[in-house]
Q: What sequence folds into this?
């Protein structure tokens, strides 16, 4: 499933993440999951498991308190 | 293909990184704190209204909320308790073109510094005051203070009645009064957008989850449980009379927009 036929890309800056898990709880289409490995600060960061199901709703970006995750629509190979 | 993109991820940054210093991450707040969400929605509102970095001046106080001005890539300052709105008055005299935004927490606003609101009203400033209320002095945990909820107390002492901030702002003469929780981040952003075009004082109270503050049990809740707690116990109602907004014996927190009129000519 994609946003109006366009591909959506989800980005995670894992060194900014603190592993609160709000993005995983807030995602309605179960795109994200907390990873087993940890980042350099010792937190479990989210990873993208179902990238096809992202709707680009922006909830994970909106609720992330650490500015660590966002999604964009991919336009002709150029990330916007 | 996915590996190539993740390796070149350093070239792409978060949409609000235009306003932030990206070297200082991770931020100093607890995981799941509501202050980060407030900062994000504020800068999203700035982007929607085409407000550049040079048009803003951000003042914050001490403590957790005061750390906001540490990682902003624009003119900002962190000032001791009690002088914050006074500083806003001085900055407005020197830079009348800049939009002044003040981030306050409980200690800055209710113990010392809240009386400066009258000065800001008298000088007819167009400032936006974002008051982040997390029901606690987060860095000094066990004190009771004017916003402690009704059936809560410190280890010794009596119950106190919490303070009604929107009513106080109304009586001083604010033009725009709203109250939101960070779980309504989209509404919060909409209120920031509206308050940029308000003439006069505007105060937005954000009831923000604090991880140290235990809600109803003895243990510290998860960030997700905390967000769910504020989601379940809040209720959106618009244009409620500000007198009814105290958190005294309410079972649910009333959030919404309550006042939006031009009151610059009131004295």
A:
């Amino acid at each position: 499933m994609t946003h109006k036929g366009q591909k959506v890309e989800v980005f995670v800056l894992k060194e900014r993440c603190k592993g609160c898990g709000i993005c995983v709880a807030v995602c309605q289409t179960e795109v994200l999951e907390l990873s087993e490995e940890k980042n350099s600060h010792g937190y479990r960061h989210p990873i993208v498991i179902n990238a096809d199901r992202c709707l680009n709703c922006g909830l994970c970006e909106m609720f992330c308190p650490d500015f660590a995750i966002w999604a964009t629509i991919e336009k002709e190979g150029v990330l916007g | 293909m996915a590996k190539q993109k993740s390796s070149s991820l350093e070239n792409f940054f978060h949409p609000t990184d235009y306003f932030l210093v990206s070297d200082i991450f991770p931020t100093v707040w607890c995981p799941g704190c509501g202050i980060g969400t407030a900062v994000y929605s504020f800068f999203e509102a700035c982007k929607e209204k085409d407000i550049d970095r040079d048009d803003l001046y951000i003042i914050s106080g001490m403590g957790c909320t005061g750390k906001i001005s540490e990682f902003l890539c624009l003119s900002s300052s962190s000032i001791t308790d009690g002088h914050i709105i006074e500083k806003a008055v001085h900055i407005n005299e020197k830079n009348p073109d800049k939009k002044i935004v003040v981030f306050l927490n409980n200690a800055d606003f209710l113990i010392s510094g809240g009386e400066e609101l009258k000065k800001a009203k008298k000088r007819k400033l167009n400032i936006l005051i974002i008051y982040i209320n997390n029901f606690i002095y987060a860095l000094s945990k066990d004190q009771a203070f004017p916003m402690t909820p009704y059936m809560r107390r410190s280890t010794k002492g009596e119950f106190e009645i919490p303070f009604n901030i929107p009513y106080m702002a109304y009586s001083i003469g604010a033009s725009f009064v709203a109250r939101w929780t960070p779980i309504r981040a989209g509404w919060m952003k909409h209120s920031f957008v509206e308050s940029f075009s308000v003439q006069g004082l505007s105060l937005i109270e954000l009831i923000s989850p604090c991880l140290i503050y235990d809600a109803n049990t003895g243990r510290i809740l998860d960030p997700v449980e905390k967000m769910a707690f504020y989601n379940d116990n809040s209720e959106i109602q618009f244009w409620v009379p500000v007198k009814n907004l105290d958190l005294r014996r309410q079972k649910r927190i009333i959030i919404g927009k309550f006042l939006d009129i031009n009151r610059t000519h009131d004295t």
